[in-house]
Design brief:
81% of the residues lie in helices and 0% in strands. The chain contains three helices and no strands. Helix 1 runs antiparallel to helix 2 (23-48) and helix 1 (2-19) packs parallel to helix 3 (56-95). The longest helix is centred in the C-terminal third of the chain and has 40 residues, at 56-95.
Length: 104
């Protein structure tokens, strides 16, 4: 379940960044995905080699808290996009009370 939440979050962030029309927010989503990938690489390499060791606190945060953070991040992103779509539809309804024109 941990790997599903980890890779699912990374893929969801990358998919959301490719579909997001705002460049600044899309860049932030890509950086979050990159930070997750980098921290996974850091912890994985620390366990596979003896060159360095990951700090126990960082390792605990990454291993234990990643599914929790992934859950909240995905709920936040989903809620944000639903809120934006609802506000967009409200604005359209206010601008065109008789319905959308044929060409739109």
């Amino acid at each position: 379940m941990w790997l599903v939440s980890y890779y699912g979050t990374v893929l969801c962030l990358l998919a959301a960044s490719s579909l997001d029309p705002q460049r600044k927010r899309a860049r932030l989503l890509r950086w979050w995905a990159f930070a997750l990938v980098w921290s996974g690489w850091y912890v994985g390499m620390a366990h596979q080699t003896s060159v360095w060791t990951a700090q126990p606190v960082f390792e605990w945060i990454f291993v234990v808290q990643t599914p929790v953070l992934a859950k909240f991040l995905l709920c936040f992103l989903g809620g944000r996009y639903v809120y934006e779509e609802m506000s967009r539809r409200r604005r359209l309804k206010a601008a065109y009370p008789d319905g959308l024109p044929e060409g739109a």
